[in-house]
Amino acid sequence: MRTAETAIRQSHWRELLRSPALMIWALSLLLTPVHVVRSGMPQPGDWLIVLLVPLALIGWRGSLEKRHSRMLRALMWFTLWVFAVNYAWALILWKWNDPKNFILHPFFYFFNAAVFLCSLILARRRRELFLRITVDAVFITIVVLLVASFVYHNDYRGQVFFDSPNQLGYYALLSACLFAMTQRPLGMSRVRVAVAITCCAYLAVLSASRAAVAGISVLLLMLVFSNPRTIIIASLAAIGIVSIGGPVAKAIEVSQERVEHGQDARLSFSEERGYDRIWKNPEFLITGAGEGAYERFVGPGEHRRELHSSFGTIVFGYGVVGVVLFLIFAIRAVRGAPLRLAVMLVPALIFTVAHQGLRFTMFWVVLAAFVILKSMPDLEKQSHVGRLPARP
After folding, report:
1. pLDDT tens figures, 245-254
2. What whole-number distance in Å separates Cα of residue 283 and Cα of residue 279?
3. What global pTM score does this model have?
4. Which of 69, 173, 269, 381 is deepest in the core (most CB within 10 A)?
């Protein structure tokens, strides 16, 4: 089995060398954690995506599966609404001097929608090839991050090459979800997947991100019931990593400390994350308040801060219209998927309850992999549970 998997992987990597678009895709994934300029600006991996888009579009005649086309139309309308709301508020409040006030945020959604589209285009003929290359590139990246974490030490919370510990934690969580959802459909070795998920769990703990650790914990709990042998192997690998001590022990200690004492005792969860703006400012719930000019929603002397939640940002930032448009896209994305596959997205969604995760490109990579997996013709045979309802 291992020899067959190795042969398949070697064959796919040979195919990669013949496809410039796939090669750039793999390189962009390998460079995802490398941040060389301040957060919010294009990183090396982002520039590769800019190069990838025209390559992916060359030779594409604009045709996709009907369900993919309908899903992309919904995403396009949501993205257009994001532009409309933010630039309308920039005009009304005349906030053009600071790019973080309305101007820059729509481009995150546009960029990630382009990543999502490119993924579907590259995978339309060779789905398994695309998925294996994606998983292998992410696996290599996770291993590099693990090794680098013993060299790039931080005083408190680990972030390795990322700009912030939360980015590292979110990336680790999303990568773990990717490994978990692709293991059976791609026939991947349990040992390899268990080691990968263990590395992801360590990086999440290293980041001391409470949301990432919670998401990883939920994922491991789900795997106990769906794939217990993988968990047994992962447990053995975890024991090996923990026994190293040093930064591993420190990461566990810091993560535990943040779980117990990380929240400001003066604020409730809704106040800390900014959810309270939704019911304190109901006048924005129709069209949305956009993403910017946060000083509108804080008291005198308080620090201006964005709403730390993906769902909360959609509700408050883009109103009922934005919620409807995004829900249409989300429903079309998950409709018809095997239940076992769909629940693998839950741990990632847990993170977005406490953070704005929709701007993170890796989220859209994992979502694209999910959409590609659910449309693979042999996936239903490998699933031991039913599918989510399809469109009548």
Report:
1. 555 556 656 6
2. 9
3. 0.87
4. 173
